[in-house]
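Re-run with default settings, no changes from the original entry. Doing this only to confirm the output is reproducible before filing.
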Amino acid sequence: MNSAPLFLALRYLRPTRSFISVITVISMLGVMLGVGVLVFVMSVFSGWQREFRQMLIGFEPHAMVQPMNSRDDAPKSPDWRELRKTLAARPEVVSAVPVAEGVVVVENEGNLQGVSVIGMADEADNGLLQKLRKHLKEGKFDLQGDSIVLSDKFAREIGAKIGDTLVVHAADSVNQFIRQVREIPEDTEEKKRAEALDNVTVLSKDLTLVATLRADTAGLRGYVPLHIAQEFFNLESNVSGIELELKDPDNAEPLMDAIYRSSGIPETWGWRTWVQEHGMMLESVENQRTMMWFLLLFIMLVAAICVMNTTITVTVKKRREIGILTALGTRAWQIIAIFVSQAGIVALFGVVAGLGGGFFFLGIRNWLRDQIATLTGRDIFPQDIYFLSSIPAHTNLGDLLTICTTAVALCLMAALVPAWFAARVDPAVALRDGG
């Protein structure tokens, strides 16, 4: 008798040319759609989150130690060279590199555009330089002469090619130039105005574009030799900070906090990590993933309602058979088990079909993107926003188990209510009405 509920559930699901068969197929398609969409969307979001983190680790400094504006009564800050040696000697640190960072204005054939740059020395133990060279698209990453390295996207925007000489202006001196020009009265005589303009200067240098990096994997930042950046940013022999490459970049924040608390970093110096630098973006990705999960869960709820409708229809159509089973001594839980088993079978078939459909569309996701872009004229995954040239995907086993378990559980719960009412029917009434 224990196998009787499953036997009857399979019997009721047997294909027939009836309304019950149609709504059973619709219920199965609903479950398949819900599972397939969830698998596809969650895999894309997980892939984007994973690739974005790897991309940041691949070109961002893992951590930066920077001098802070100290008070007059604060203890004297140690020389950055001493601090660099101390940090480089730590076992968790791969390399410690002095850098100068800021914004410059790059000019080429009348095209001017600002860009954030990092100045650093071309040294053999420069861990940041070594990982940046992996993103090289064209040219040679060389920071030993009057050179500059830009992203391929930025180079295209200003019309620059490898070997071109670019005029690079210090952003601060450009701002100062604008302020000084505005301070010249408009009613000043032409000769005096010309003399005043002659006294206004902009710090500029001619730098050769020696290499371009892939913007989709290395960002839009530019790179120049350390001594040039120090001149641009009025640092003299000082630096903006010391860039650290860590053995475990995912553990950057607790590690830097531990170093600071152990007095490995002076009180007059602060620190930041790649997670802090892009924390808002990383949090935004996680929030979007969570919100998408809850929104797509409604598709699963609709599928569960379809299963409930199927169970209601079956219990109404099989009312006389339920009465006979009850009169023969079948217990209420066995009647419930028949229709819950039926819903479970529908859910399982729907889940399997949904998994297959979801993985199929994941396999052709970039082809679909190209087709949609061709038809609509819009890129649904623009590189400028997502920093990736192709749609990533990564399927977590935990996500799959959650999706499948949720689908089956919702379907079983949806079938439980009508099955419970069917088990409570009076045999005499059911036989009379069914007759």
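The first helix runs from residue 4 to 12. Confidence is low (pLDDT under 50) at residues 70-77.
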